[in-house]
Design brief:
Elements: E1 4-9, H1 13-24, E2 30-36, E3 51-52, H2 56-59, E4 66-69, H3 74-86, E5 90-93, H4 96-113, E6 117-118, H5 129-135, E7 142-148, H6 151-163, H7 167-176, H8 184-188, H9 191-205, E8 215-216, H10 224-232, E9 236-245, E10 251-260, E11 273-280, E12 284-291, H11 295-310, E13 333-340, H12 343-346, E14 353-359, E15 364-371, H13 372-377, E16 387-391
Parallel strand pairs: 1-2, 1-4, 2-3, 4-5, 5-6, 8-10
Antiparallel strand pairs: 7-9, 7-11, 9-10, 11-12, 13-15, 13-16, 14-15
The protein binds NADP nicotinamide-adenine-dinucleotide phosphate.
NADP nicotinamide-adenine-dinucleotide phosphate (NAP) binds near residues 9, 11 and 12.
Length: about 400
């Protein structure tokens, strides 16, 4: 491709980060022509001539041949990206919620209009996971992808475990540092990790799974007694997303806090860093590690997508196009720690086996095996219960 003329949507943490990173890069002939933002009255630190609040100034400009979408509103992002692709403009996006919810349509739009949509920045910030899953791990030897995919919740858990910080102070710090999404529930309740996991599952195993069909549970109910339990067992709690093959070559996935032992790579992933362990039949395990949030690291990942477009790169979705992709199954068992205070809350959980049990006037817990199906059936009820759940598997 010749010169890239960019129309940028969003000038928040990542949009401004991209602007800075792009100024320093000499390897790609790309220039931002216009920047569309929501609030025209906000003070900006670059020339006002760039800014508009009218999306049409970008989408209707024939000179702009690449749209970079970095806004914090998934519904508006969907309209912007869809319109851009329909008008023959390739797009780079960081919006995992929009991508995970509309992936089937986004793939069809790329094919129909012969354009590309790149989104490596949408999962794991600066770590190039998606393109590696797509290009390097492009065969059926891959067995699982397990990772800390959300920088904000990992920052919060690091501050709690390593510095004894309170949950609310740690969340406030994550927000001030630009690691957190505008709506913190997105990070701490595991939705951000869930959307990223859905995208990684497509590029790892060729399957698109609607986010609503995947179990996710976050860290917002974490209590002092859960931290004490983890410490006594020599473990740390991290929010972990996992997709893996089952024994019959199908796949299963979920997002849950996990009680990690020190021998695991992701045990040492702290602060806003992300870490992803890729397992395969013959290479055992490989580990990717890097900053998963923040304006400049994520801006670098966006620049990498822009450079890829400069070289005409597009995802081929090779695994998605194979005739027999694996099936998504939910009848498998996981070993979990469940902390509760009321027996009526506990009664929603159908454990098939219990290996540890503790009861006191302050709180109770059990460790045992439960099916993903059971957890999925009570997913919408869980936010109303006073419980904390974490997987125990290493
Ligand atoms: N922050 C991170 O570390 C990180 C990491 C990876 C991916 N991401 C993703 O990157 C995207 C941006 O995140 P962010 O942290 O940079 O968000 P942010 O700091 O909240 O900035 C959002 C920007 O979007 C603009 N905006 C909102 N609605 C708009 C609309 N309808 N049309 C045009 N502009 C609109 C806002 O305009 P105003 O400036 O006028 O308010 C603002 O400039 C999100 O999809 C996020 O999930 C973020």
């Amino acid at each position: 491709m010749n010169k890239l003329t960019i129309g940028l949507f969003g000038f928040g943490t990542v949009g401004a980060g991209l602007y800075t990173v792009l100024q320093k890069s000499k390897t790609v002939d790309a220039q931002i022509k216009r920047i569309c933002i929501k609030n025209p009255d906000k003070r900006r630190n670059i020339d006002a001539k760039y800014f508009t609040s009218n999306a049409e100034d970008i989408l209707g400009d024939p000179e702009i041949n690449l749209v970079v979408e970095l806004i914090d509103n998934a519904a508006a992002a969907y309209d912007i990206v869809k319109t851009a692709l329909q008008r023959g403009k390739s797009v780079v996006s960081g919006n995992k919620a929009m991508l995970a919810e509309h992936m089937t349509e986004m793939i069809a739009l790329q094919q129909k209009h012969n354009v590309a949509l790149l989104y490596d920045a949408s999962a794991c910030g600066s770590i190039p996971v998606i393109r590696n899953l797509e290009e390097y791990y492009d065969n059926d030897l891959l067995t699982s992808v397990t990772g800390i995919l959300n920088g904000s919740s990992n920052y919060i858990l690091s501050k709690i475990f390593n510095e004894g910080e309170t949950y609310s102070n740690a969340l406030k710090q994550a927000q001030e540092l630009g690691f957190a999404e505008s709506n913190p529930s997105f990070d701490v309740d595991g939705y951000d990790s869930l959307y990223k996991l859905v995208i990684l599952t497509l590029h790892a195993f060729g399957v698109i799974i609607p986010p609503s069909e995947v179990f996710n549970f976050g860290i917002s109910n974490l209590a002092e007694c859960d931290i004490r339990y983890a410490r006594e067992k020599g473990r740390k709690i991290k929010l972990v997303a996992r997709v893996g093959k089952t024994e019959d070559n199908n796949i299963t996935l979920y997002v849950m806090p996990r009680m990690l032992t020190p021998d695991l790579y992701i045990y040492s992933v702290e602060d806003e860093y992300n870490g992803v362990v890729i397992r395969g039949q013959f290479y055992d395990k490989q580990f990717m590690f890097g900053k998963g949030a923040g304006g400049l690291p994520t801006g670098s990942a966006v620049l990498s997508d822009i450079t890829a477009r400069f070289h005409d790169y597009r995802y081929e979705y090779k695994k998605f196009c194979t005739p027999n992709p694996p099936k998504y199954v939910t009848d498998n068992l996981v070993t979990v720690y469940l902390r509760y205070r009321n027996v009526s809350d506990f009664e929603h959980f159908r454990f098939v086996e219990i290996s540890e049990k503790y009861t006191s006037s302050e709180f109770c817990y059990v460790v045992g095996k439960i099916s993903i199906n059971n957890l999925l059936s009570i997913k919408s009820l869980l936010p109303t219960l006073d419980v904390f759940l974490a997987t125990m598997c290493s």
